[in-house]
Design a protein that fits this description.
With about 450 residues, the protein is an all-alpha fold. The protein contains 19 helices and 2 strands. Strands 1-2 form a two-stranded antiparallel ribbon. The N and C termini lie far apart (about 55 Å). About 0% of the residues have low confidence.
């Protein structure tokens, strides 16, 4: 099966007339296949607890949310799914976090299959790597770091869960929550849609969770570059420095904003700032937050994590590049940071990602507003849309109450957010013609 998938891209399904699919379309089909397979598995009776009947739309929503590492759920995961169902969700989260292409190619390497140039192109598209150089190195870093951090997280979690349950259940809970935290998924097994509020005030548990979320959200390329540079700031590339710098800025702004805008403790404020970056865990009731706090949450969620990570959003480097490009004092030096210039193509792509992201959120919000006209709080519907697109999973508690049309809109938004607006646009649109048009001046502003 894996060998067949690898060969498909190389020879265009074995035909000479049909051209090979683009990497973007392959990624789209791979994620779609993972969602369909996951929804079918979750709809079988063995995946449910005794006496529970799960509709296929709810199974599909859960599969999309898991593969897109979002965490939004229309059902109580703990009360609905059996141990087998919870294991399936954990596997879907790992597949979505590592990337379907990365999972397939890494498995092929493990089994001894040859990975050619075409397959490396898919990996390059999957992790948003600038060039084909070093794709397999990044892939090995993805596999190694994923297993290492998730395993370490499970070991650290075990002490907390062992105090609440027997050893066997504690192992299962530790593994599930470590996978969910590192992959920024936000799924939990605590039940009653309470997320991890049972650990509110538990500094050890919240610190471990925050560390896993931040590490998974940095991006595998950043992890690989950090290891390559041996943690030396001087040796790190510009992209890595940008990620670390803007991540720290956002964490500080978020923590200070939540602390100053409401009656939250320092620990809750810091954790909320961390989890807003596409993780979706919560130690408090999101619906009880004030309007300013909800707005700050949406801004942090929309920005999200970093490229090539397990998180979503328009990404940290996108926003930082746009901020740098809007600097009125940069004069003729161009867009630059850390004594390095950012090429015009990257700046244009940043604007495209931001525009498509805003368009996706507004479109999803419009659908929800039309389908949920009885809902008294449009702000909550927009929050749900941002959470879906940014693959965060935080909710004010309205997800299970939404109509089928609204749930479908959220699923599409999660899919777009996980693959990226540019990838989705490349999948739908035809390749541009090489013949250019006559250019004319447009008056802007």
């Amino acid at each position: 099966m894996i060998h067949f998938l690898l060969r498909c891209y190389h020879n265009g399904m074995g035909t000479k007339v049909r051209k090979p699919l683009s990497p973007a379309r392959y990624l789209f089909l791979m994620f779609l296949a993972a969602v369909i397979l996951g929804s079918l598995l979750l709809s079988f009776p063995f995946a449910h607890r005794e006496g529970v009947i799960l509709s296929f739309p709810d199974a599909l929503f859960t599969a999309v949310s898991a593969v897109c590492v979002t965490g939004l759920s229309t059902v109580d995961v703990h009360a609905t799914f059996s141990a087998a169902g919870e294991a399936i969700i954990a596997i879907l989260i790992m597949v979505g976090g590592m990337g379907v292409a990365g999972m397939i190619v890494s498995t092929a390497l493990f089994l001894g299959f040859r990975v050619g140039l075409s397959q490396r192109t898919i990996v390059q598209e999957s992790y948003n790597i600038g060039s084909l150089k070093g794709t397999l190195t990044v892939l090995k870093t993805v596999v190694f770091s994923s297993l290492l951090f998730q395993g370490l997280g499970a070991l650290l979690y075990y002490h907390s869960f062992r105090a609440m349950m027997d050893p066997v259940d504690a192992i299962g809970y530790s593994l599930f929550h470590a996978i969910s935290a590192f992959n920024n998924a936000g799924f939990d097994l605590m039940g009653n849609f309470t997320s991890i509020s049972a650990f509110s005030g538990d500094r050890f548990y919240m610190t471990v969770t925050s560390a896993l979320i931040i590490t998974g959200g940095l991006g595998f390329f950043v992890i690989a570059d950090t290891l390559r540079s041996r943690f030396s700031w001087r040796r790190m590339g510009m992209h890595t420095k940008m990620v670390y710098t803007f991540t720290a800025i956002l964490l500080f702004i978020g923590s200070a904003g939540f602390l100053l805008s409401g009656d939250l403790s320092v620990l809750d404020s810091v954790f909320l700032s961390v989890t807003a970056r596409t993780a979706g865990f919560s130690t408090l009731d999101i619906g009880s937050l004030k309007g300013l706090q909800i707005l700050l949450l949406m801004i942090l969620m929309f920005i999200g994590a970093s490229p090539g990570s397990t998180g979503g959003g328009v990404k940290t480097t996108t926003m930082l590049t746009i901020i740098l490009a809007l600097n009125p004092f940069r004069r003729s030096r161009g867009v630059a940071i850390f004594s390095r210039g950012i090429d015009e193509q990257s700046v244009n792509k940043a604007y495209q990602v931001l525009t498509l992201g805003v368009f996706s959120v507004l479109t999803c919000t419009a659908v929800l507003l039309g389908a949920e006209q009885h809902h008294a709080d449009p702000f909550s519907l927009m929050f749900e849309s941002v959470s879906a697109f940014a693959t965060v999973g935080l909710s004010t508690g309205i997800t299970p109450e939404l109509s089928t049309l609204s749930k479908a809109a959220l699923m599409v938004s999660m899919f777009i957010g996980r693959l990226g607006p540019i990838t989705i646009a490349s999948t739908i649109l035809r390749k541009e013609s090489r013949i250019g048009y006559i250019k004319e001046r447009v008056f802007i502003g």
